[in-house]
Structures are given as C-alpha cells and as structure tokens.
Amino acid sequence: MTKICDHTSVGILAWKEDKLLLIERKKFPFGFAVPAGHMDSDVSYEEAAIRELEEEVGLKSVDLELLIEGRKENPCRRENGDWHYWKIYRMETKGEIQRSLDETKQAAYLSIDEIRQLGQRTEKYLVGKISEEEWEDSPGIEPVWYEWFRELKII
C-alpha cells in the first residue's frame, strides 16, 4: 500500500557532550541525518518526535525543547512527498543506541568537525560533483538537514 505524504515532519537533535547523534539512512532520501520522520497518526509533533527517536535509535526522551520550525522543499519516498513542515527539537535522552536495522546503516554521535566534513560532501553533491550512485554508496548530510544545520549554526 502506497503511503501518502502528510507534509508534517519532526527532527530530533540529541547531544551527548559536544557530539550530535546522526544516523545514516538506509532508504531514500539517502544521507546522514538526525532521527526524524513524519507525524503519521501521532496527536502532536512532540509525540511524533518521542516515537521517532525510539523507533530509529532505541533512545527514550527525558526532556524536549522546540528549537525551530518551518517549511522546507525536500523529498521523501511517500506519494506527493516533495515538501514538509518541520518542527525540530533538542532532546535529552537516556539509554544506549539500538539502531533500527531496517531504517539505518549506522548511528553514532559525531563531532562538529565530522559533521562539517559530511557537509562538504553534501556541497559537492548539490553542485553535481558527486553522482547519485556515489552519494548512495557514501553520502554526506541529507540536503534538508544540511539546510537546517546551517540555519541552526551547527555548521
């Protein structure tokens, strides 16, 4: 059954000391991103953020704070999924990473320098210096997250 995009998404910034939790997506859209996803049947964006964090990396939310929100033109694999209204949260977490084997290739806390290096790869991809095949094999930051990280002054 084809899922229809609801155009609502959440993203979770989970910091551990000075490192940010990123996953590498196993499915389109490829790239490194924070745990994120659609609201689906959740009652609130906050509820969706807590659910996505647990689904993708097995962590529990201790506290969350809305950092930024807005519309971004970004594709997803759902029908009509070409834009999303995002709410991005900072979240305190507990537990150990237990990544979703279905949704992620890897999950780790990365330093700002490591994130900047991935961002440089994204810049090359966005100007056509990296093919789709090369990107899928060895991506940088997912383009929508590259935009959010720049707005949030992470990179």
Quick summary of this structure?
The protein has helices at 45-57, 112-126, 132-137, 143-151, and strands at 8-13, 15-16, 19-25, 32-33, 36-38, 60-72, 84-94, 104-110. By secondary structure, it is of the alpha+beta class. It has a domain at 8-110: Nucleoside Triphosphate Pyrophosphohydrolase.
How would you sum up this structure, described in words?
The structure is a single chain. The strands form 2 sheets. Strands 5-1-7-6 form a 4-stranded mixed β-sheet, with helices on one face. Strands 2, 3, 4 and 8 form a 4-stranded antiparallel β-sheet that branches. The radius of gyration is 15 Å and the shape is globular. With 155 residues, it is of the alpha+beta class. The protein has a domain at 8-110: Nucleoside Triphosphate Pyrophosphohydrolase (Alpha-Beta Complex). The longest helix is centred in the last third of the chain and has 15 residues, at 112-126. Helices cover 28% and strands 33% of the residues.
Q: Helical stretch count?
A: 4
Number-wise, the strands total 8
Give the integer mean of the pLDDT values. 96
Distance between the terminal alpha carbons, to the nearest Å? Answer: 38 Å
The CATH topology of the domain at 8-110, please?
Nucleoside Triphosphate Pyrophosphohydrolase
CATH class of the domain at 8-110: Alpha Beta
Oligomer: single chain
Order of helices and strands: EEEEEHEEEHHH
Q: Helix- and strand-based class?
A: alpha+beta
Biggest sheet, strands in spatial order?
Answer: 5-1-7-6
Rg over C-alpha atoms, rounded to the nearest angstrom: 15 Å
Low-confidence stretches: none
